[in-house]
């Protein structure tokens, strides 16, 4: 049984979204599961386009323009994915509504799907933009989300080096197990990292390492001192994928200074898999 039932990737047709589509295709091909390219749209109402004299000049099917454009954008995404992976099982979806809300609601209907989004707007400069789609999705998703760093081109290779952060808690262990399953399916190696005092950290890493080894996945461990979020951001630079639980991403917790996943999501340079653990 696969880790996920399918991969859903959102695209708006931009260059950076195209990079997210390619990364999603890489993951879907590696996990050998179907992929859906989704483009949300807002239905255009004639009364929003000017006075009645202007509306009279509009084509009768003006209300469908948003849908038609979304279909074309999604199909362009399919072409990008199939160029890299011709045998990929792929489909399109055009949910209607606010982009973030529409993607979230559509993903909810697809069972245990992985939602993949580009990370443009999650950096410090875009953090407080109204309607920031990636930011809204990472805080409200009901399932796992992969945030793809789209600021640069990359090879169409599946992640080979996976970093998993843990503090030994039940929620972190759930994220660890999900990260192990993904790494195993992709043929990747795992490094488990924890931040804290040496005695406690040794026990946490020993238990985590045993879980990874039991899955037959190559494992290394790292123990660090300092600020957990800062350490994870720095160390993730050497990896293809960072895996964290979402504890602290939702509700009031995300505004706390110590919300590690939230802080990491805005600064990490690697792709980030946020596992739904709460």
Model description:
- The chain is about 40% helix and about 20% strand.
- It contains 9 helices and 10 strands.
- Strands 3-2-1-4-5-10-9-6-7-8 form a 10-stranded mixed sheet, sandwiched between helices.
- It is globular, with a radius of gyration of 20 Å.
- It starts with 5 loop residues before the first strand and ends with a strand.
- Pfam families: Usp.
- It comes from Euzebya pacifica.
- Belongs to the universal stress protein A family.
- InterPro entries: Rossmann-like_a/b/a_fold, Universal_stress_UspA, UspA.
Helices, strands, pairings?
Elements lengths: L5 E5 L4 H17 L3 E4 L13 H4 L9 H20 L5 E4 L5 H10 L4 E6 L14 H8 L4 E4 L12 E5 L4 H17 L2 E7 L2 H17 L4 E6 L3 H9 L4 E5 L14 H6 L5 E5 L3
Parallel strand pairs: 1-2, 1-4, 2-3, 4-5, 6-7, 6-9, 7-8, 9-10
Antiparallel strand pairs: 5-10
Helix pairs in contact: 1-3, 4-5
**Estimated structural class:** alpha/beta
Q: For the residues shown, what is the average pLDDT?
A: 84
Count of the domains: 2
Binned, the helix content reads: 25-40%
Order of H and E elements: EHEHHEHEHEEHEHEHEHE
CATH hierarchy: architecture of the largest domain: 3-Layer(aba) Sandwich
What does this entry show, briefly?
This is Universal stress protein. This protein has 278 residues and is α/β, with parallel strands linked by helices.
Question: Keywords, please?
Answer:
Universal_stress_UspA; globular; Rossmann fold; Rossmann-like_a/b/a_fold; 10 strands; Universal stress protein; alpha/beta; UspA
């Amino acid at each position: 049984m696969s880790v996920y039932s399918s991969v859903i990737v959102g695209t708006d047709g931009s260059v950076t979204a195209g990079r997210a589509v390619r990364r999603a295709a890489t993951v879907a091909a590696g996990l050998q599961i179907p992929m859906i390219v989704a483009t949300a749209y807002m239905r255009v109402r004639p009364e929003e386009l000017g006075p009645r004299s202007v509306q009279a000049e509009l084509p009768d099917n003006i209300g469908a323009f948003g849908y038609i454009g979304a279909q074309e954008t999604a199909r362009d995404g399919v072409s990008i994915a199939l160029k890299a992976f011709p045998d990929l099982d792929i489909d399109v979806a055009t949910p209607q509504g606010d982009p973030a809300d529409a993607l979230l609601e559509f993903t909810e209907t697809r069972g245990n799907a992985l939602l993949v989004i580009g990370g443009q707007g999650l950096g410090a400069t875009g953090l407080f933009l109204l309607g920031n789609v990636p930011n809204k999705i990472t805080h409200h998703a009901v399932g796992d989300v992969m945030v793809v760093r789209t600021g640069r081109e990359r090879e169409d290779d599946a992640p080979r080096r996976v970093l998993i952060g843990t503090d030994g808690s039940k929620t972190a262990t759930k994220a660890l197990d999900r990260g192990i399953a993904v790494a195993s399916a992709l043929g990747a190696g795992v490094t488990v990292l924890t931040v804290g005092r040496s005695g406690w950290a040794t026990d946490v890493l020993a238990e985590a390492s045993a879980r990874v080894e039991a899955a037959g996945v190559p494992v290394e461990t790292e123990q660090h001192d300092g600020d957990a979020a800062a350490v994870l951001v720095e160390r993730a630079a050497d990896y293809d994928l960072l895996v964290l639980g979402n504890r602290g991403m939702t509700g009031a917790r995300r505004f706390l200074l110590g919300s590690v996943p939230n802080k990491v999501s805005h600064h990490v340079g690697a792709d980030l898999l946020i596992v739904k653990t709460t």
